[in-house]
Amino acid sequence: MIETEKEIEVINESDIKPNSNITKKEYESKFMRHRFFALSYSIFGIIILILVIIALIITGAYPCVHTKCHEHATCFNTPFYADCVCKEGFAGDGRDHCDECGITNFKHNANDTGSGSVPYSWPATGILEFMYTTLTKLEQERVLLYNYEACGAVLINRKTALTAAHCIRTEYSYFDWYYYKYFVINVTFNNFHPNFESIYSLYFGINKFVNYYVDLPHVQLGDVKDIIIHPEYNKVTYENDIAIVTFLNEINLDRYTQIACLPTKEKSNNYPEKNHNKAFIAGYSSVGDSYIDYNQYNIRLDIYNNSMCQDVQQYRTKNWNRQFCAGEYDPHGNLTSQCHGDYGSPLYVLDEINGKQKYVATGLLSYDVPCDVEHAPAVYTRISMYTDWIIENSRY
C-alpha cells in the first residue's frame, strides 16, 4: 500500500516513548527543542501584546502626538481624540482652517446720526428670515396661514451664527379680523416644513434687505442644520436671549462676507464696559418703530449706565450681569429716526485682538423702545457671559 498522507507527529512528554531507534538522550534533546520553540513563541506573542497595549495607551492618552492641527490652532489631548482648537482671534474646525476674525475690506461710515452704510462694511452681519405656513383650525374654520418675520444675525465661523433666542419662534400671535381676536399659532414641523431648513434662512454678503427682484450679487445662504436656544432662556423676561444656528454648508469667506470677533476669555464679565463709547450697529429697521429700510444703515451708539434702561419695557426683569444698556450717541441731545438695528443684530465695539484693532461683537439686540423716546435706550444680551457655551456648541 502506498502512503498518501504525511503523518504529523505531536510530541509531548507523556506520549513520546523511546524506541530502539531513538536513544533517551536524543528523545530529551528533541523534547527540549520543542519546548524552547513553544516558549519563544509565547514570549514573542506577549511582547507584541504589550507593545500594542502601549501604543493604544499612547494613542488614547496623547493623540496629539500623531495629529496635525492648523498653524493657528492648539491641540488638546482627550481620550483617543486630539481636540484642535483655534486660538483666540481665529475660528474654524482647527484642522483644515482657522480663519482670522474681524477682517473688513470696506471702511464703515457710521456716525451719531445714522446713515446708509458703505456696502459690505459690516461683513459678519446677516439677516435671519422666518417664513412659516400652516393649515390650522380657527374656531370652526380650517384656514391656511402664512407668517414672515426677520431678525439680525452675526457669523462667527463658516458654519455658525448667533442671533436672539426670541427670534426662534415656537409660537406666534395671529389676529383674525373675522373673529376679531388673537390666536396663538404653534410653530411645529409639518407637511410644508419638515425641518428647520424649510422654516429659517440666513443671508450673508448683503447690503440690501433680502427680497424678491432685488439685486444681491454677493449673497450667500446658510442652510440651517440645527438651532440651539440657550437652556436658561426666559421667553417672558428675555434673559439669556441668545441662540446658536448651525449650517449644513460652509459659508465662503471673501471680500463681502467675513466672521466677527467674539470677546476673548480674558475680558471681564462686564464687557463691554462703560468706557467703550465707540459702539456700532448695522441693520435694516428701527425696530421700536417697526420700520424697515431696504438699504442697510449703520449708527454709532454709546454704552449707557444700566439705569438708563431700567424703564425699557418695565415688565421685563433685568439681569445686568447678562445684559447691558446702549443707546444713541448724540452729544447735542437730538433725536434720530434710526436708532437700532434688527433684533438679534450684533453690537460692535472697537478693541484690540492679537495686537490689531478689530470690531468685536459684544451684544445682541434683545428689546428696546421706539426711536422717538429720548436717548432711545435698548437692552442687549452680553455675549461675553456665554463664550464657553458658544465655543462648545459651535464646533464642527
UniProtKB/TrEMBL annotation:
Keywords: Disulfide bond, EGF-like domain, Membrane, Secreted, Transmembrane, Transmembrane helix. GO terms for biological process: proteolysis. It is found in: Secreted. One of its GO terms (cellular component) is extracellular region. It holds the Pfam family Trypsin. Residues 114-395 form the Peptidase S1 domain. The keyword Secreted applies. The keyword Iron-sulfur does not apply. The chain crosses the membrane at residues 36-62. SUPFAM superfamilies: Trypsin-like serine proteases. GO terms for molecular function: serine-type endopeptidase activity. SMART domains: Tryp_SPc. It comes from the Eukaryota. Belongs to the peptidase S1 family. CLIP subfamily. This is Uncharacterized protein. It comes from Brachionus calyciflorus.
